[in-house]
Fold:
Amino acid sequence: KQEVTQIPAALSVPEGENLVLNCSFTDSAIYNLQWFRQDPGKGLTSLLLIQSSQREQTSGRLNASLDKSSGRSTLYIAASQPGDSATYLCAVPNDAGGTSYGKLTFGQGTILTVHP
Amino acid sequence: EAQVTQNPRYLITVTGKKLTVTCSQNMNHEYMSWYRQDPGLGLRQIYYSMNVEVTDKGDVPEGYKVSRKEKRNFPLILESPSPNQTSLYFCASSLGLTTEAFFGQGTRLTVV
Structure:
């Protein structure tokens, strides 16, 4: 059964810092890994999808890396801003051999606070 | 604009009163699913659908029903809501089973 873990659970940084959020998964047979952002009481916004064949994916100040063999992904946020404050979630889909094919297994999230 | 739309956004209801949360997507996606999010438990899948008239249970299906009569719509039905179904609900859709997933804005349900 796939398990996804995110560390740290919470992170507080001053504006302007570069930061790294970590995501690990137990079953390396994944098709892709997706990073989401969730604002309090709001929906999930897709940030980046990184395919299993890719090592990196970039969007603006965000960069996600994937190391399938070690079961890890990192989300790098450059020059953080107060508007980046949110919960960041990573998720991987179930593979074809299991039940609930396509179900996303989520980590518990990292709560990020960027203070001015 | 490509989006997943849920309604209502907020709902307070009483135990046993049937309710439906609607979900609609305008991206012609085949795969749709429902999740609930609870503190300490994270996001858990309730039901999913791989296409019209094809649905299956997720991890926590008890107390819920779904239907997929049209490709764009995937309503979640609570026939007899109970307080333990108080939660934040999300509908999601994707083109395929392993492509980018898009989520609705969420429905906060309180059952008293």
